[in-house]
UniProtKB/TrEMBL annotation:
Residues 2-177 form the 3-hydroxyacyl-CoA dehydrogenase NAD binding domain. The lineage of its organism: Bacteria, Bacillati, Actinomycetota, Actinomycetes, Pseudonocardiales. PANTHER family: 3-HYDROXYACYL-COA DEHYDROGENASE FAMILY PROTEIN (PTHR48075), 3-HYDROXYBUTYRYL-COA DEHYDROGENASE (PTHR48075:SF9). The keyword Oxidoreductase applies. It comes from Saccharothrix longispora. Its EC number is 1.1.1.157. This is 3-hydroxybutyryl-CoA dehydrogenase. Keywords: Oxidoreductase. It is an enzyme of class 1 (oxidoreductase). Residues 180-276 form the 3-hydroxyacyl-CoA dehydrogenase C-terminal domain. Pfam families: 3HCDH, 3HCDH_N. Belongs to the 3-hydroxyacyl-CoA dehydrogenase family. GO terms for molecular function: 3-hydroxybutyryl-CoA dehydrogenase activity. Pathway: Lipid metabolism; butanoate metabolism.
Amino acid sequence: MGSGLMGSGIAEVCARAGLDVLVAEVSPDATEAARGRIASSLGRGVRSGKLSTEDRDAALERLRFTTDLADFADRNLVVEAVAENEQVKTEVFAAVDQVVTDRDAIFASNTSSIPIMKLGMATSRPEQVIGVHFFNPVPVLKLVELVPSLLTGEQTKARAEAFVTDVLHKEVIRSQDRAGFVVNALLIPYLLSSIRMLESGFASAEDIDNGMVLGCAHPMGPLRLTDLIGLDTTKAIAESMYEEFKEPLYSPPPLLLRMVDAGLLGKKSGRGFHNYAS
Ligand SMILES: CC(=O)CC(=O)SCCNC(=O)CCNC(=O)[C@H](O)C(C)(C)COP(=O)(O)OP(=O)(O)OC[C@H]1O[C@@H](n2cnc3c(N)ncnc32)[C@H](O)[C@@H]1OP(=O)(O)O
Ligand SMILES: NC(=O)C1=CN([C@@H]2O[C@H](COP(=O)(O)OP(=O)(O)OC[C@H]3O[C@@H](n4cnc5c(N)ncnc54)[C@H](OP(=O)(O)O)[C@@H]3O)[C@@H](O)[C@H]2O)C=CC1
């Protein structure tokens, strides 16, 4: 459900793993954009020699797209990756609950920060609901955080873990159901600190990023990473973490808020802390 940046990557790795994948989007235009993103990422795999053209074609054949939620009736695993917005997500979980007929089906959320219990309680089967949090870019990064809520069943935990490790061949870490889980609890204050550093005139965006790439061997600096994640998504994650803990380090700085107001969302919009216009 939802095939933006993350949903497209999740659909791609599932199709490459041999699964029959149905991708839901809100409109035909969004569907076309998702199809294009997945095809281009598979093309990249072929160019780098990691994927044969036969495997690429087979993966594309396993992917179907729909804008009609009723098509989800026969699914036994639903992965939600719609925007980081509690209201939108709870509506999606409530709707999926009405449609999916298999009472053993697992409902997973790729949320970065919204407590899983809130999503579980939107359904009639919270024991089937679990956080399965992938990392961006999904075809490249090996980690998945597994986040059961207080009501998630033991079988759901075991089946979700087997899906991640045995089917997708990714690595899991486990987290309690706290906004931000393990990785974002550490990463988001770092990204927000880099924005505050830029905002205060302490250093330029280039120097902040080069500092962490050349001085700490990070693959990309914090401002470029925020551009990759999306400034809107970073703001939404910070807000839900701040709502949970009231910790000032999680509070989104004004520069981030203004850039989101201005539509400067990072790589996906062509401009964020850096420019991506070709
Ligand atoms: C917000 C949340 O809730 C959680 C999160 O996800 S936080 C974000 C976590 N992500 C990160 O921290 C990303 C950090 N950055 C990186 O890992 C790397 O910079 C990067 C993988 C994005 C790009 O790596 P790079 O070395 O600069 O670029 P590049 O050489 O183009 O790519 C390296 C490899 O990854 C592949 N790749 C890069 N981006 C890709 C994509 N979007 N899809 C598929 N493959 C991709 C490339 O094909 C390349 O593969 P080969 O070596 O086989 O050719
Ligand atoms: N960006 C990142 O680096 C990471 C993000 N995440 C999490 O993944 C989730 C998705 O993030 P991301 O992919 O970046 O966001 P995007 O904005 O790229 O994608 C969200 C997608 O969901 C679609 N959508 C919205 N409402 C619905 C709906 N009711 N039914 C179906 N589709 C819907 C949107 O369509 P439209 O645009 O047309 O509204 C959009 O295509 C969030 O929870 C985020 O926190 C997790 C790890 C990393």
